[in-house]
Write a structure and sequence with these properties.
alpha+beta; Helix Hairpins; D-amino Acid Aminotransferase, Chain A, domain 1; OB fold (Dihydrolipoamide Acetyltransferase, E2P); 7-stranded antiparallel β-sheet; 5-stranded mixed β-sheet; 20% strand
Amino acid sequence: MKEKISERIKELREKLLYHSKLYYVYDAPEISDYEYDMMFAELKKLEEENPEFFDPVSPTQRVGGKALDKFEKVNHTVQMNSLSDVFSFDELRDFLMRMEEITPSLVYSVEPKIDGLSVALTYENGVFVRGATRGDGLVGEDVTQNIKTIFNVPMKLPENIPYLCVRGEVYMPRENFERVNAKREAQGQSLFANPRNAAAGSLRQLDPSIVASRGLDIFVFNYQEGDLNIDSHTEMLDKLNDLGFKTIMNRLKTSNHDEIISHIEKIGEMREDLPYDIDGVVIKVDSVAERRKIGEGTSTPKWAVAYKFPPEQKKTKLISVDIAVGRTGVLTPTAVLEPVRLAGTTVSRATLHNLEFIREKGIMIGDKVTVQKAGDIIPEIVCAYPAERDGSEVEFNMPTHCPSCGEPVFYDSEEGAATRCTNSLCPAQLARGIEHFASKDAMNIDGLGPQIVELFLANKLISDSADLYSLKEEQISGLERMGKKSAENLIKAIENSKNAGLERLIYALGIRNIGEVAAAALAKKYGTLENCFDATVDDICEIEDFGAITAECVVDYFSHPQNRDLCRRLIDAGLKTEAVKKQLADNFSGMTFVLTGTLPTMTRDEASELIKERGGKVSGSVSKKTTYVLAGEEAGSKLTKAKELDIPIISEEEFLRMIDIPAVNEEEFFEILDK
């Protein structure tokens, strides 16, 4: 009997592997989804009833498993470098000429650059044993269980190769991205900005079953190390394809510079029709031996570059302009567009910033306009086409009264040409203010998004942020989208937020011009929320980087009786409103850090907190004033800028060494760091 069960399990596994490959690799299924699901269910049942036949490479092991507490670190035996970027064909020709000054008549591989997340896949004796993220190139995270959910990753190779490590790019197909975002929207969750962000966020989930539901995919694009002896990169990819890996398509092997550029243009033309996102084309020296001769840079190979496409642009029509009222009362115009596919998503709205921007661009309602995504994330209008007008176009003007409350608005020329509502009790400002109060960088009340805030306001359960701390589970559990478990979790999150601390609370209050850094500085100077009530402009201006306008915003906020009343109610609700005095080394005093990419073991928020606790500053952009750039996995344009300005770039490991240095003077600090 057991022998028959064993044979049936083996048969089902082989069939499922065969049909999985037809479906996921070749897009040529031979059976229906129902037939596949029935085989899968039978196999799963047989394995559960007969645990002695467990096999880690069985198809059933791909769809989840126990959630992890954290990801373990993985040291890469071969550094996973990033690539230097070029943005024009002139820069590309310069690279090719440099290569051929070292070695004449080189042959290159030209291939699309998938916009995803790099991973290393390791096999021992032909069996998949580990998947790790790139991390900082030297140290990544063990995401083996999550990688198993990607059906294009073979669990067992057709050849018993003793050791093999390959590099691939995990991505989310556009179709799956739309599906995932539609589901998140229906559940009131924030949407992923683009497929790359969705892939990165999914692969770093601690629960593999969530990863399995996202439908990630992978292209393998490089041989890292192992027991294969092939000198040509192109031939190596062909070999990896034979071993069952899904390798990058639309490749060209050539030594002709004009053919390289022609192929890049061809890939650019097909970019929109691909089922996945690409952000450029990689040009690599094909010979592994020649690569060794050319050598490696500190964090990028000298024998390869990535040609980056300019932002994708599309022409569409501006149908109308909507006005949104922000938490500080600023009226922001948003263009409503005829929907157009752009950089992986369907775009139907774009920011118009303010009236000055609209006048500068010469935009009218009804115009044909070109739209692009700034940084491939935020849709913006590039230009309009006045020559194509037919006379039906209408000039846009900002409203004279707030669309939310009907009160008059005024033009605030001192603050970025903003049009602002004068009513502090404006419903739109109230909702946006509560959303800001609950946001991740403020009080971090998980589950209290825009839709839930609107729900509570509509049911008159809250009228400001302080009312959140009076909510009871029974009040909200019967509301739409708020079952018993959701209500329980939200009340718990609200209670936990009481311990967020003074600097987060000051930021959460939504004082104009007060960001996270300024809030931390105020908390450090005044120590308690009540001490802020009597702060003067002169006192506040003594804080480094505080000017008169920012100081006046603080004084103005705390001078209003309704704001003081809100603060006192927050104090009475039990929020921690005193700054925590931490006895830490102040070695980062005077230093400015910029964070980029995904760090191996901590979030950027956590790293920022460590920097600020030790007297340092965190900036969002790289400049000559930047002391260090802390770079993690998939670092972007900030890393490129740091290299251009010769700013020191450090890994998380180096950063943690700096954290551990005791309180010493500046000279001793750098002496220790250099050791």
